Amino acid sequence: MITCVVRYTVDPKKITAFEQFARRWMALVQAHGGTHHGYFLPAEGASDEALALFSFPGLAAYEEYRQLFGRDPEFIEADRIRDESGCVLRYERTFMRPLLPGDDGSA
């Protein structure tokens, strides 16, 4: 399993648009073989950081999903929310391997 962690810098004045963007991407990840663990949004103070975590069975499955970017109409529409609203100022993507409760290390 591979987990993608996306760290966003968001415009705090455009959180509603970011939530719309996030809901759309959660559905797309789920519909294309991944498990979305949610978006984590600013809750207190003047924070402009948000996180998203989602997993795919492996890098090959993630790459299949990535092939739809810029080509599939639903993916294009999801990105349009971000682009037209300006809710995301920047983002960075990191891949991690989860260690989950019950993992005994005998992989």
TrEMBL record:
Organism, by scientific name, is Actinacidiphila alni
Q: Which residues form the NIPSNAP domain?
A: 7-99
Official protein name in the record? NIPSNAP protein
User: Which SUPFAM superfamilies does the record cross-reference, listed alphabetically?
Assistant: Dimeric alpha+beta barrel (SSF54909)
InterPro entries found in the cross-reference section: Dimeric_a/b-barrel, NIPSNAP
